[in-house]
Design a protein that fits this description.
Blueprint: H1 4-12, E1 37-43, E2 47-48, E3 55-61, E4 69-77, E5 93-99, E6 102-110, E7 114-123, E8 128-141, E9 149-157, E10 163-181, E11 184-203, E12 206-222, E13 226-233, E14 244-254, E15 266-267, E16 270-274, E17 281-287, E18 294-299, E19 305-311, E20 318-322, E21 329-337, E22 340-348
Parallel strand pairs: 3-10, 15-22
Antiparallel strand pairs: 1-4, 1-14, 2-14, 4-5, 5-6, 6-7, 7-8, 8-9, 9-10, 10-11, 11-12, 12-13, 13-14, 16-17, 17-20, 18-19, 18-21, 21-22
Length: about 350
């Protein structure tokens, strides 16, 4: 089923580390820059987690090498470039995430007091679905700090006003500390959400609840990159210390907020791709202090390397890129020169 379970996942999967101390997240700390990209390890049901305790300081370690699942790429895009933008005129930014044969678009609005989830669009070719949150879901109450709490109840409706699903959230920032992930060590707040989810179908034109479940969701938020990790219990389990996760997502890499690909690498000061989107050929324009060979890798939505180019020592900053027979879609382009690296989203038309 597709509802704002994905809304909670993806839009929260969008909020740099400063110091290992208790933090406060305000409006200006939430990234919403077009082109920001997040690579996420998405683990399947049955992942074993250690969610830890309330209060702080705590340390949570997410070793993705033990998780069975796939890599996904989520990017912030311009609302006007999306197929469902007309249904969300108040959206400030949009996150897009390919999910197998589907592409999910999440529409959000940012105010001084709240991060609001307006709804989603699902593009599956022959299957198209739009869910409009009524009222808007309160994804994060701002400013968020240890002890912040709120509730949010909403119904996802189709474009004709019929209910798709409904959700009730009881949310509290119940812990703080450091989350250790492949993308770095992040000072963070942990958000605990107890959720009631009700799915609907139609019988004789009348909506009928066909599935309902209580679950507990934990998310670990840091400044500039959002939720660096998210886990959800199995249906019916709302215990505070569950270990059997139905769902687990961990931030592996990001370009948000100028964050480096990994802590060991120093970032290039600039990487531009022109044109972007492109029809098959593009020029990579970058600024690097390192001399020597340059390598370019493209990753698909599943995190697989689908194209690799290596260049000898270059005298200028421009590198031509021929995409060959790559299928149209969204890719992550990584350019490495010596110990410097940068990543940008690339769209192949």
């Amino acid at each position: 089923m597709f509802g704002t379970k994905s809304l909670l996942v993806v839009c929260c999967l969008m909020l740099c580390a400063t110091a290992a101390a208790q933090i406060t997240i305000e409006m200006g700390d939430l990234p919403h820059t077009v082109g920001d990209t997040f690579i996420i390890k998405n683990a399947r049901s049955g992942a074993i987690v250690n969610v830890g305790n309330t209060g702080g300081p705590q340390t949570w370690t997410f070793d993705t090498s033990s998780y069975v699942g796939d890599l996904r790429v989520s990017s912030i895009v311009d609302k006007g470039s999306t197929p469902f933008g007309k249904w969300f005129p108040d959206a400030d930014f949009v996150a897009v995430e390919p999910m197998g044969p589907f592409v999910m678009y999440i529409y959000d609005k940012l105010t001084a007091g709240e991060l609001l989830g307006l709804g989603y669009g699902l593009d599956g070719g022959s299957l198209i679905r739009v869910g409009l949150a009524d009222p808007s879901a309160i994804v994060l109450d701002l400013p968020a700090t240890f002890g912040t709490e709120w509730t949010s109840s909403f119904v996802n409706k189709d474009t004709l006003g019929g209910p798709i699903d409904s959700q009730e959230w009881s949310c509290r920032v119940d812990a703080w500390g450091t989350a250790v992930t492949p993308s770095g060590e992040w000072p963070c707040l942990r958000l605990s959400t107890v959720e009631l989810y009700i799915d609907y179908t139609y019988a004789g034109g009348v909506p009928v609840a066909v599935e309902s479940a209580w679950t507990r969701i934990y998310q670990w938020f840091s400044l500039g990159v959002g939720a660096v990790a998210r886990t959800q219990s199995q249906n019916g389990d709302t215990s505070a210390n569950f270990t059997d996760a139905a769902h687990l997502r961990v931030l592996v890499q990001t370009t948000a907020g100028g964050v480096q690909e990994t802590p060991a690498l120093s970032g290039m000061s600039r990487l531009d791709i022109r044109p972007n989107p492109c029809l098959g050929r593009a020029m990579l324009d970058f600024a690097s202090t390192a001399a020597g060979p340059v390598s370019v890798r493209l990753f698909d939505a599943a995190g697989r390397v689908v194209l690799e180019r290596r260049y000898g020592s270059i005298t200028g900053s421009g590198v031509p890129l021929d995409l060959g027979n790559l299928s149209p879609g969204v890719y992550l382009c990584r350019v490495t020169s010596g110990r410097e690296t940068a990543m940008r989203r690339l769209v192949r038309m």
